[in-house]
Amino acid sequence: MVRERTEPLISREEIEARIAEIAEEITRDYGDRDLVMVGVLKGAFVFLADLARQVELPLEIDFVAVSSYGMDTESSGVVKIVKDLDLEIAGKDVLLVEDIVDTGLTLKYLSGMLRDRGPASVEICTLLNKPDARKVDIDVKYCGFNVPPRFVVGFGLDYAERYRQLPYVGVLEDKEGSDGTG
Ligand code: IMP
Ligand code: MG
């Protein structure tokens, strides 16, 4: 059973409470704006679903999919767009929603790419942040939790496509810490 191999780090209740806080901030900050929430697939799907349902604003939702890690946890540093946006974002306020910011390479690339399309703004909202693993500087506007440089799974995050459905965030027990090495 998957649970036996993960050590809980952030409980379902803690995540729920934090998402409610972030949703309130977003509702306040984007009150008079034209908000598009862009989830980065696949990892962000759980967080985005919970978050968006608590933001009390008219908003649009879209997704991008990138590949950089493949089936392993090691960052190649190369980000490839596997699925682009369906929506036009020119003049709109884009909020990129991620599961975790690790090296920062994915969001550095993605936010740059989206900025070239003439949006009013591009900001980043992530459930988890690994500040110790950062390789490039990026501004994170909303962050759920800082986590230590260890490999975490659950709440959308996977290891080799598994564990995404766990309702909490856990540390995968036999994985070493992440400094870009996963
Ligand atoms: P970055 O480009 O290094 O910031 O990588 C971001 C992506 O790497 C995330 O969206 C995740 O898909 C993946 N990733 C980084 N750290 C972890 C982790 O601890 N567990 C699961 N996925 C991770
Ligand atoms: Mg991801």
What order do the helices and strands come in, and which of them pair?
Elements: E1 6-10, H1 12-29, E2 35-41, H2 45-52, E3 60-67, E4 80-83, E5 93-101, H3 105-115, E6 121-129, E7 142-146, E8 152-153, E9 169-172
Parallel strand pairs: 2-3, 2-5, 5-6, 6-7
Antiparallel strand pairs: 1-9, 3-4, 8-9
Helix pairs in contact: 1-2
The chain binds inosinic acid and magnesium ion.
Question: What does this entry look like structurally?
Answer:
By secondary structure, the chain is α/β, with parallel strands linked by helices. 20% of the residues lie in helices and 29% in strands. It has 3 helices and 9 strands. The chain has a 6-stranded mixed β-sheet with strand order 4-3-2-5-6-7. A 3-stranded antiparallel β-sheet has the order 1-9-8, covered by helices on one side. The longest helix is centred in the N-terminal third of the chain and has 18 residues, at 12-29. The radius of gyration is 16 Å and the shape is globular. The structure holds inosinic acid and magnesium ion. Residues 40, 43, 68-69, 75, 98-106, 151-153, 157, 178 line the site of inosinic acid.
Radius of gyration: 16 Å
- Which small-molecule ligands are present, each listed once? inosinic acid, magnesium ion
The unreliable regions are 177-182
Task: For the record, give the distance between the C-alpha atoms at the N and C termini, rounded to a whole number.
Answer: 23 Å
Biggest sheet layout: 6 strands, mixed
Instruction: Tell me how many strands there are.
Output: 9
Strand content: 25-35%
Helix and strand succession?
Answer: EHEHEEEHEEEE
Helix-residue proportion: 10-25%
Give the structural class.
alpha/beta
The average pLDDT is 90
Shape: globular
Number of helices: 3
Could you give the order of strands across the largest sheet? 4-3-2-5-6-7
